[in-house]
Amino acid sequence: MNIFAFGFGQVSKYFIKKLAKEKNNFELNISSRKDSHSGLFEGIKFNSYQFDVKKIDNRIFEAILKADYILISIPPIDGQDIVIKNFKEAIKKTKTKWITYLSATSVYGNHNGEWVNEKSKTKPTTINGVNRLKAEDQWLEFSKQYNLPFQIFRLSGIYSNQNNILKRLRAGQTKIVKKENHFFSRIHVEDISNILFKSLKTFKRNEIFNISDDKPASQIDVAIYGSKLLKIVSPEPLKLDSLEDGMLKDFYKDSKKVDNKKMKEFFNYKLIYPTYKEGLDHIFNNKI
Questions:
Q1: Which of 79, 91, 139, 142 has its CA 20 to 30 Å from the CA of residue 98?
Q2: What is the distance, to the nearest Å, from the Cα of residue 167 to the centroid of all Cα atoms in its chain?
Q3: Distant-in-sequence, close-in-space partners of 104: CB < 8 Å, separation ≥ 6
Q4: What's the fold here for domain 2-160+188-213+259-271?
Q5: What is the pTM of this model?
Q6: 57-66 per-position pLDDT tens digit
Q7: Neighbour tally for 2: CB within 10 Å
């Protein structure tokens, strides 16, 4: 098994950990903005090839051609997918069995707290959401043109043992805003990696899946629950008008509940952390 990962952030790392845990034999190649190098990750040898908007290690093309599975977690830049832009010719020549593009549920935009599924209207309100949707369209067009084994995972807000609200609460870095009818969906990165693993064998071309847990909730509810676990006072809510323009303000533009039925049924998957409560309980109880 030969795997190529464009980008090696927390989702890619958890996916590789899952493959290793299941005792799969595989060769791992990744792209990184750092200088090209070889190394070890969790005891797994890998080759890393430099790739950013200014520099490409040409050995990356040969590595792509050998790939059985390609995972793309690099976000679009200026509304364009830089993987398609730079590697279209190589990817269409591969004999790969699986290409997965990690998108985001920001493509749905604001639905005023209503449920959205994979057939819902996409009407992004943020620059990130607009660019994600453009990249999705580019990939779908490319995939259909060359009949590629391609799927899209629209990820809800990711949290993990390393990045979570408990750490931010402890550090006094959590800002919450009181906004009526504001719902947001989340997913633990371990559940993402498990579904990626399942999709290696359970696969259908050009499908889109929402990757989300069962319980959309307001940020206030999550902060209150986390504060109770830590036995600290929950942060005082801010007014929306007091926020400067940026990612935090963008977060409160959209309100929606992300439906995960298609994901659970197609992959026959039972979530490890069906809600933020199980996820935060695990992090707290294991002193992570």
A1: 79
A2: 20
A3: 128, 129, 132, 154, 155, 156
A4: Rossmann fold (3.40.50)
A5: 0.95
A6: 999 999 999 9
A7: 15
